[in-house]
Amino acid sequence: xxxxxxxxxxxxxxxxxxxxxxxxxxxxxxxxxxxxxxxxxxxxxxxxxxxxxxxxxxxxxxxxxxxxxxxxxxxxxxxxxxxxxxxxxxxxxxxxxxxxxxxxxxxxxxxxxxxxxxxxxxxxxxxxxxxxxxxxxxxxxxxxxxxxxxxxxxxxxxxxxxxxxxxxxxxxxxxxxxxxxxxxxxxxxxxxxxxxxxxxxxx
Length: 203
What we know:
This protein has 203 residues and is an alpha/beta fold. It contains 4 helices and 14 strands. It has one domain: 3-Layer(aba) Sandwich (Rossmann fold). The protein has a 9-stranded mixed beta sheet. A 3-stranded mixed beta sheet has the order 9-8-11, covered by helices on one side. Helix 2 (27-44) packs parallel to helix 3 (66-74).
């Protein structure tokens, strides 16, 4: 296990490399892969009708979530989106058809401050962006710590899903003991059930 300083140094280097690699993806290829990821998730049953799902508003070269959010609502999910609050905190806000999004921190679209807020304990499924993941479910974020602070507030049985492109998945990424892990990874080719009973779910 690396020391905290060694792990942070390695994370910084990997963040820079992954921003470059993901940003180099052709826009058309990225859009097609995002459609495949969305359909794979919808077909998986992990976000079934009646589930309360916290998604994210994609930005830059992330897996696109616009059509996925609409599809989740159509299949009967209660969709929430994150809003960045003071002191690097996240809140979960209800997002319904016709609601207007505003530009928040870092230029990311988010619900307005008037959108109804739900406590994290109400969330059944959370969809997470990231720069890199490993097959054990470890996630490399952007370094702001928003999700690191939010994830411990979820119920233990909340399903955590990382949405990513195949090139973002590694056998192992730099990590520290406190780093949160996801339960599943969904890319354009497969679903990986993470952890000790790691399993690829293809189709």
